[in-house]
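Dear Dr. H.,

I hope your travels went smoothly. While you were away I took the liberty of generating a structure for the chain from your last submission, since the lab meeting agenda had it listed for discussion. I wanted you to have the full record in hand beforehand rather than looking at slides cold. The sequence, exactly as received, is reproduced here:
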Amino acid sequence: MLWGWLHGMPEAQPKVGNTFVNSQRQQNSTKGYITVIEGYPRLPVEQKKISPSGPNDIEGLTDSELDRLHIATITAFPKSTEKRVISFGLYGNDSKYTIGAIRNAELAPLYFPGWIARFYVDSSVPPDVLKRLKELEAEIIMMQTTGNDLIAGMFWRFLVADDASIDRFIVRDTDSRLNARDRLAVEEWINSGLPIHSIRDSVWHCHPLNGGMWGGTHGAIQNIGAQMASWSAKSAYGEDMDFLNTDVWPLVENKQMSHDAYCCKQFPNAHSFPSKRYLSYQHVGQVFNHLDEPVQKHIDDIRSKVIDEKCRRHVDWIYG
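The corresponding predicted structure, in token form, is as follows:
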């Protein structure tokens, strides 16, 4: 059973790209509303044994069946002694991000078993959100919000690259959701032996590095904190990505691999995704709103564009 936190908002209803079912709302006088989520997804597959041997064997499977299949694959991945972290930044009380943070902390053990969900936060995050994240065994890093040489909140999550205690990390957005497609791509990166990973899974992702869709290994980027501190415009929207593509990309371009659904011809060492896109057009980096619903416009953007054959793992995977 998964738990979601809704701060006094109407109950979220499942939409395209979201497989949660059987929601109930319970009133809690101190925490607002708690949404109880059941059936996401249930293991093992009870009605149908799925043992596909190739791309044609998954045709006709529902998104839920595919997700269960992928989770079984993920569960069977070799265990690692590496310390692995999924790094998020969280500040303020906007429920789009606070709910997203909790949802990702819930999803991490399902799709990224053995990885630690870490949140770089400040005192503007509601205490009950922090409490719930801790209950979900997320790491909380409290950031300084006064003084000189501050690093803006959207940059905090990049500090994971400077943490000498970590062997491998990925950086993700709180308003997106961890999913199987993401984890399967990350496993291919791990097996590549390359120190940097970039993901591009939407028509809007055609940049060398996207703020919440990249990762690295210990030592792959040196002194990123100092580089961020010297970046001139740290608070403007999109500056985190400008920083990555101006200062970081030139350092890592020749030691990275990417998974790229739409712009694989534009960047070096780009690979197709190892999993077929779901019928719901779910994607890595997909944005969700404050009701835990995927943004329909982004789904429509993917649905409207068949991808280049070069960017497909199999020719009939027309949406990657």
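Two observations you may find useful: The helical segments are 63-75, 95-111, 127-135, 153-156, 180-192, 224-229, 239-252, 296-303. Residues 1-56 have pLDDT under 50 and may be disordered.

With kind regards,
E. W.
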